[in-house]
Amino acid sequence: MRAERILPYAKPWILIDQVTELKGGTQAVAVKQISSSDFYLQGHFPAHSIYPGMLLLEGIRQTIACVFLQEGTAAVWKESEVSSRFMHPVEPGDSVKYVVIRRPSGMHAAQFDGEGWVGDNKVIQARIAYRKEEEANEANARQ
Length: 143
Hints:
The protein is of the alpha+beta class. The chain is built from 2 helices and 6 strands. 20% of the residues lie in helices and 38% in strands.
């Protein structure tokens, strides 16, 4: 299914093209075709364009958002912690497959492991943790 039918974002900031799999609040798979006409590739880098790593991370976030939106809880969760590792450059013409899996983490927390793949090459891995909004607000008030 087309990502713009699911995500509440406007183009050009929808950074996944298609959601190919959604499994009951626990897993999602999405695909992004990297095109040389994508404006964020212009000048990054002029002699040899590569897809910005932060946009790869955002692709994982948007794939996770599809999981939350499917279960109707997107407004409840606030991102609380992110760790990521970029492993291989992504270039125009590549197709990135994002896979996110929700890990057991309790009623007031959610944690996802995400990966991005170009063919057999893992290009990014990330772990993103979320807290329920009221939990996040209480933690911020204590700081």
